[in-house]
């Protein structure tokens, strides 16, 4: 056993805890008192420390501001009925962050900083963790290029940070989405599988247009043929077709490998459902809809766990769904949430105690 690294801590002079309205948390509104920080300089991680959450001051030539060499993760810690705190599958986020780092020519982040640092940070700010059902501490690890240069090349220095904040229960109204036919999100050989800022920047025009038309999101299609569905915004997409759970496969690197997706597929398989990870064409979905076999459509991701889709528009066809009938995904949503809140016993070793 490697002894846990003891990270130096500079505490806040005055806590912001009293400013948090725990009855009205929302999402991404509040931040805990402290943040974890580390610097990559001269080929190694240095200055690992926990200090007050506060603004960072940088040069206008900071390379990330110009060329977007930046990656992030999103995860949650829940408090259980006994007041114990568990992070859900943080090793998966750590591995994914390092896959993103590799694609973006950034350094690997060691386990002692990512996992151990996260635990110590959460322990210090544990009073910020809400205890209501589906309430949690949202955790945002991220890394960005810090070299002061306008040269286009990978940076020689980076900053890694973890910030956290309490978030409320996520009541997402069933979504209306349309199939995006003009813009694309990710092509083979690109960065679709990486959680990197540019992917989201490139999607904002499309989601703004969707909102203008009264929709919540768009469903992205493959860049080559505009024929196969990929995912929605910051969520993977799943369908119940006949008696099978169907979701696009990850093989061409255009789709983000969601940990909610991975966990749901595991639970569906354990329950004996037929699970198919494969190409899913929009034509297949339209045909299944017309035949009455497309029964459930839902997005899945850390924020909402599962978000049901009540309307899916493709060209002139508006496919409407009765969300009250989406019983398979509704039951699974509750099961995964109960799992995260440690109500089911940690059968698969997915919970890491802080
Ligand atoms: C983060 C993200 C997801 C969901 O991943 P989870 O690990 O389940 O939160 C899906 N798609 C995109 C594009 C994402 O950024």
UniProtKB/TrEMBL annotation:
GO MF, one example: branched-chain-amino-acid transaminase activity
Catalytic activity: L-leucine + 2-oxoglutarate = 4-methyl-2-oxopentanoate + L-glutamate; L-isoleucine + 2-oxoglutarate = (S)-3-methyl-2-oxopentanoate + L-glutamate; L-valine + 2-oxoglutarate = 3-methyl-2-oxobutanoate + L-glutamate
Pfam families linked: Aminotran_4
Pathway: Amino-acid biosynthesis; L-isoleucine biosynthesis; L-isoleucine from 2-oxobutanoate: step 4/4; Amino-acid biosynthesis; L-leucine biosynthesis; L-leucine from 3-methyl-2-oxobutanoate: step 4/4; Amino-acid biosynthesis; L-valine biosynthesis; L-valine from pyruvate: step 4/4
Protein origin, superkingdom: Bacteria
EC number: 2.6.1.42
Keywords: Amino-acid biosynthesis, Aminotransferase, Branched-chain amino acid biosynthesis, Pyridoxal phosphate, Transferase
Cofactor(s) for this UniProt protein: pyridoxal 5'-phosphate
Keyword Transferase annotated: yes
InterPro entries documented for this protein: Aminotrans_IV (IPR001544), Aminotransferase-like (IPR036038), B_amino_transII (IPR005786), BCAT-like_C (IPR043132), BCAT-like_N (IPR043131), BCAT_family (IPR033939)
SUPFAM superfamilies hit by this protein: D-aminoacid aminotransferase-like PLP-dependent enzymes
Function summary: Acts on leucine, isoleucine and valine.
NCBIfam families: ilvE_II, PRK13357.1
Entry protein name: branched-chain-amino-acid transaminase
Record lineage: Bacteria, Pseudomonadati, Bacteroidota, Chitinophagia, Chitinophagales
């Amino acid at each position: 056993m490697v002894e846990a690294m003891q990270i130096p801590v500079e505490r806040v002079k005055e806590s912001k805890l009293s400013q948090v309205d725990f009855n009205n948390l929302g999402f991404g509104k509040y931040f805990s008192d402290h943040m974890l920080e580390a610097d990559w300089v001269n080929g190694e991680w240095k200055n690992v420390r926990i200090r007050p959450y506060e603004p960072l001051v940088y040069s206008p030539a900071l390379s990330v501001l110009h060329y977007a060499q930046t990656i992030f993760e999103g995860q949650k810690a829940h408090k259980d009925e006994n007041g114990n705190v568990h992070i859900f599958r943080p090793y998966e986020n750590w591995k994914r962050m390092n896959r993103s780092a590799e694609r973006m020519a950034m350094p690997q982040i060691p386990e002692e900083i990512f996992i151990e640092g996260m635990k110590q940070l959460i322990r210090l700010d544990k009073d910020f963790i809400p205890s209501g059902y589906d309430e949690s501490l949202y955790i945002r690890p991220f890394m960005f290029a810090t070299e002061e240069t306008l040269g286009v090349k990978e940076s020689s220095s980076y900053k890694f940070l973890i910030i956290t904040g309490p978030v409320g229960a996520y009541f997402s109204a069933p979504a209306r989405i349309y199939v995006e036919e003009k813009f694309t999100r990710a092509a083979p050989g690109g960065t679709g599988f990486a959680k990197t800022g540019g992917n989201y920047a490139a999607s904002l025009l499309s989601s703004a247009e969707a909102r203008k038309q009264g929709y919540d999101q768009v469903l992205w299609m493959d860049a080559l043929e505009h024929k196969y569905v990929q995912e929605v915004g910051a969520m993977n997409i799943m369908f119940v077709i006949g008696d099978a759970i169907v979701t696009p496969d990850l093989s061409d690197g255009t789709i983000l490998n969601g940990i909610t997706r991975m966990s749901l597929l595991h639970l569906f398989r354990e329950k004996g459902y037929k699970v198919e990870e494969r190409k899913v064409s929009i034509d297949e979905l339209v045909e299944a809809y017309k035949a009455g076999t497309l029964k459930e459509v839902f997005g899945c991701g850390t924020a909402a766990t599962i978000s049901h889709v009540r309307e899916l528009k493709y060209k002139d066809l508006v496919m409407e769904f009765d969300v009250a009938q989406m019983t398979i995904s509704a039951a699974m949503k509750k099961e995964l949430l109960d799992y995260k809140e440690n109500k089911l016993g940690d059968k698969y070793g997915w919970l890491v105690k802080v």
